[in-house]
Amino acid sequence: MIGDALLDCYEIGEVIRISPEAPVPVVLHQDRRSVPGGAANVAMNCATLGADVTLIYVAGNDAAAEELTKILARGNIDSRVVLDASRSTSIKTRVVAGTQQLLRLDRETTAPIGPKIEDALLAAFESVINCCDTVLLSDYCKGSLTDRVLEHVIARAHSLGVPCLVDPKRKDFSSYAGATLIKPNLGEFEAVVGHTCNETAQIEEAAAKLCHKLGSDLLVTRSSKGMSLLSRDAEPVHLAARAFEVFDVSGAGDTVLATLGVALAGRWEMAKAMALANVAAGIVVQKAGTATLAIDELNEAILADHAVALPGGSVVDWEEARKRCQDWQKRGLKVGFTNGCFDLLHPGHVRSIHAAASHCDRLVVAINSDASVRRLKGATRPVQSEQDRAEIMAALSQVALVIIFDEDTPFELIAYLEPDVLVKGADYREEDVAGGDIVKARGGRIVLVPILEGRSTSKLVERSRA
């Protein structure tokens, strides 16, 4: 995360009268609250969504920079701050009474940073880029993201195949050329294309030219009209805004950028990442002030109304699976595990998956590899390859992860993942379930779910050959 980090301060009080000195309210001060803003708010949102975040930014050598750094440290942000004694750390101070914002006072330096500070900023970037899954640029036009910085960061990310996303503020997007995605709001987009775009068709037409010119995709956030994703090599995608009462739009764009970045780091497709960001925006606008979004809030919103078709429980390797399982368990979620060949998916399989998912918060499905199936079922099986079988299984919304294993039983995989719930069909006896003793020794349990009689892959294969 690189960009203009701000400190958002809220001076909170109660209006007690109108001043006799001027026609302005007199506010009795009650409290003060400071939160990260700008690029720092994006970083905080990424962290609360479960990402490991490094924030690279420029700040003045002042008390505000010290306060911002302490807040970021409490949020588990790896701050790489470049101090510039010639600048002031950007502060936006809002005077708030009840739910009403009365005044905003800005203190900032907006002049572009000099060559030495650019060198330090880029050195910090180079020290971490090889460990990054996504690069986010948050440009609030406060001077940190100069043309030189933008050109270097975007080109470097592109050379490594790392997605680079930009939240722009400039009226000319040419400095962002080559970024994977540029995310303007509608007003910023209209300022760049030079005319209003009241209709979706107008956005599509203007964006097509701009995408081609920049070599970047565009995601235009349109407030109450939702979002539009315009790509160079795909059809436009338009999402309606989620129907919530809007309390405060401060930082909503930061939340969208953060959610997109975390989703792309998790190898989500862009359109699905956009859908997730749309849900996130709908949640954060209901909060007062610059706010972050917790992963549990996002999960609850998705599960409540199926707002996002989650990308198939991803097909992952053993190491990634264990990392995710451990993360879920740290958050108090129960991890379930079931396995099978799943050669030709039929209603019996689907019902068993649904039943298994009802006994846990996250369901992991392990699929026998092609070699394993041949040993178990014979030389004519499987009908479908392991990758095809895994992809089909991952498409079921109840499945969080799919793993392929090469052994005859999943015993070693169960020992490696340490799930909380082990699920098999009722045609098994509990003592015969591979890995059952491991799960029970950790305080977990074995669940035997009903099977649908008369349904089997073997019978389907025999029928197709008859």
Automatic annotation (TrEMBL):
One of its GO terms (cellular component) is cytosol. Residues 337-466 are annotated as: Cytidylyltransferase. InterPro entries: Bifunc_HldE (IPR023030), Carboh/pur_kinase_PfkB_CS (IPR002173), Cyt_trans-like (IPR004821), PfkB_dom (IPR011611), RfaE_dom_I (IPR011913), RfaE_dom_II (IPR011914), Ribokinase-like (IPR029056), Rossmann-like_a/b/a_fold (IPR014729). The active site is at 254. It comes from the Bacteria. The keyword Metal-binding does not apply. In the N-terminal section; belongs to the carbohydrate kinase PfkB family. In the C-terminal section; belongs to the cytidylyltransferase family. This is Bifunctional protein HldE. It comes from Sphingobium nicotianae.
